[in-house]
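Exercise 7.
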Amino acid sequence: MARWRAPALLIAASAVATAGSATAAPGQSVLPRFDENVQARALRQVREQRGPSTELRYTQVAEGRVLCGYAGRRGETASVAFVSRPSRILFSDDPLQVEFREVRDRFCPDLPRAPNTRTG
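Solution. The predicted structure, written as tokens, is:
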């Protein structure tokens, strides 16, 4: 009976260590934060991609948890269109311009278009 005790203790210790490490960093999740409101999420995403001085200049709530609008850096007049979803944000000047237009047209067909933009 004693010879089974050591392996059983190792297995139990391993299980406890694994469970502890899974809960050690709850802020490190790759899953979207659904408790965050859409405005706060969009601002966070924009600043993560464009820098901390970026601000939301115009927003329009779309279906579900989607927010569309324009963002730009403080002190600059240029703005870029965006579509913010819980797990991803797309910008009109991204290399995936066709994907941006498809998502924008699906979720925000009434988003005002800037008169002098080439990317849509």
